[in-house]
Specification:
This protein is α/β, with parallel strands linked by helices. The chain has one domain (4-223): YjeF N-terminal domain (Rossmann fold, 3-Layer(aba) Sandwich), CATH 3.40.50.10260. Helices cover 40% and strands 18% of the residues. Strands 4-3-2-5-6-7-9 form a 7-stranded parallel sheet, with helices on one face. Strands 1-8 form a two-stranded parallel ribbon.
């Protein structure tokens, strides 16, 4: 039977995979995002074009790994990150440095004008990948990310893929915020999230696929049984 997890349970899976099983967080990120890239290719083909929007947190790090694997598979990739390097999480910085060294088309845009201009450049044949905000999000999306999400939703595209959770959606309650990505496909990690099953989430998550992060199955079973 398919399982669902809360925000706290997913966080606990990550923590124990790192602490108890000594799996570095960057390996979990690599596993998750590589599997996500495979699902994107399975959905949209082996020769595509992607536009990736990433934030400075680990969700943006997932976007960096996806960019690398899509590029290596023959896709044309454009990539925007919404903060300067001093705000990146450590694992995001490592993976961003890799795609920059590879010569991918990367834009660092911490302000509204270049962000929305980039969103307006999306073409109908491109797959848009949302890696802006992760499962930790709750409340309201702040400017300029709110305006960026609205511009992404309004853009022509081949498809819109959310990484782990559509940015702006509360993964526990399924409630959209003031600006929420309307995904065609959500590739979520470890397990489906409780909020995705709520009627309020239906217009935002699209089809949901679960990608493995490489955490031991015994750990996931333990967390499923946990009352968190």
């Amino acid at each position: 039977m398919a399982i669902t997890l809360s925000r706290a349970q997913v966080r606990r899976v990550d923590e124990l995979a790192i602490e108890r099983y000594r799996i570095p967080g960057i390996i979990l990120m690599e596993n998750a995002a590589r599997n996500a890239a495979d699902l994107i290719r399975a959905t949209y083909g082996n020769d595509g074009r992607a536009v990736i929007f990433a934030g400075p947190g680990n969700n943006g790090g997932d976007g960096c790994v996806i960019a690398r694997h899509l590029h290596n598979a023959g896709w044309t990739v454009r990539f925007l990150i919404t903060a300067t390097k001093d705000r990146f999480t450590p694992d995001t910085r490592v993976n961003f440095d890799i795609i920059q060294a590879m010569g991918l088309a990367v834009t660092i845009a911490p302000t509204a004008e270049p962000q929305t201009a980039f969103a307006r450049s999306i073409e109908s044949g491109e797959v848009v990948i949302d890696a802006l905000l992760g499962t930790g999000f709750r409340g309201e999306v702040r400017s300029p990310t709110a305006e960026l999400i609205q511009a992404i939703n309004a853009a022509p595209r081949c498809g819109l893929v959310a990484v782990d959770v559509p940015s702006g959606l509360d993964c526990d309650t399924g409630e959209p915020s003031n600006a929420t990505i309307r995904a065609d496909l959500t590739i979520t990690f470890v397990a489906n999230k409780r909020g995705f099953l709520q009627p309020t989430a239906a217009d935002y998550v699209g089809r949901v696929e679960v990608a493995d992060i490489g955490a031991p199955r015994e750990l996931i079973a333990e967390i499923v049984a946990s009352p968190i």
